Amino acid sequence: MINETSVIKRMGSPVMAAINAAKIAVAALALLASVSLTALAGNDNRAPEVPPEIAVDSSTNKVQLHGFGVGFQVYTWDGLTWTGPVPDATLFDSEGNVVADHFAGPSWQSPSGSLVVGTVTGKIIVDQTAIPWVRLVPVRTVGPGVFADVTFIQRINTVGGKAPETNGTVIGQVAKVPYTADYFFYRASND
Among candidates 167, 182, 164, 149, which has minimal Cα distance to 64? Predict the structure, then answer.
């Protein structure tokens, strides 16, 4: 019987490094998957608990859609600072179905064509390593569908997405910074 440990030791440290790198990669992927599945779990449309700066009055509004956003915050170097960001993300429901594309505006468009464009009315930094949590109100909706009656939007549980800490090297340089967030879309409650 061959002892695998002694064979690996004889093969040298490059093999050990490769094995350790593979173990780290598998662990990182498992962690990412568990975080993503936790964020997507359930069809719970109750309003999330958030700081008062971005709260929505639950006596007159209720959650109609919760989407988990995965994508990028896109920044452009103007010679002095990173401008933007402009979102470039996809929102998924708890079963992994696409519920919206998220892009400049900020805008969200459902696969059926329903569109909402929002403006920020509240913001709070919860995690110094991530973009702020925000509350938005619609300034424009287009078409019937899931976004036709939106009264508020919240972006919470943000991970990543912050502008690069180092200066750009060329005016017009683009940095696409990965991020994730939970998005809650509200409508007036009829209860």
Answer: 149
- pLDDT one-digit tens code per residue, 20-50: 434 433 333 333 433 443 333 334 468 899 9
Hey, how many other C-beta atoms are within 10 angstroms of the C-beta on 39?
18
Question: Cα separation of 186 and 191, whole Å?
Answer: 14
Domain ranges of the chain: 4-40, 57-188
Q: What is the pTM of this model?
A: 0.77
Asked whether 61 and 152 are in contact (CB, 8 A), the reply is yes
Q: Residue 79: enclosing H or E segment and its boundaries? A: none
Tell me, what amino acid is at 50?
A: V
Rounded alpha-carbon distances, angstroms, from residue 71 to 32, 143, 182: 14, 25, 12
Tell me the C-alpha distance between 70 and 78, whole Å. 26
- Convert the pLDDT of each residue in 118-172 to its tens digit: 999 999 999 999 999 999 999 999 999 999 999 999 999 999 999 999 999 999 9
Exposure string of 99-128, with b = 16+ CB inside 10 Å and e = fewer, is bbbbbebbbbbbeeebbbbbeeebeeeeee
Structure-token pair, residue 33: 């998957």
Handedness of CA 33, 34, 36, 41 (dihedral sign): positive
Whether the Cβ atoms of residue 82 and residue 100 lie closer than 8 Å to each other: no
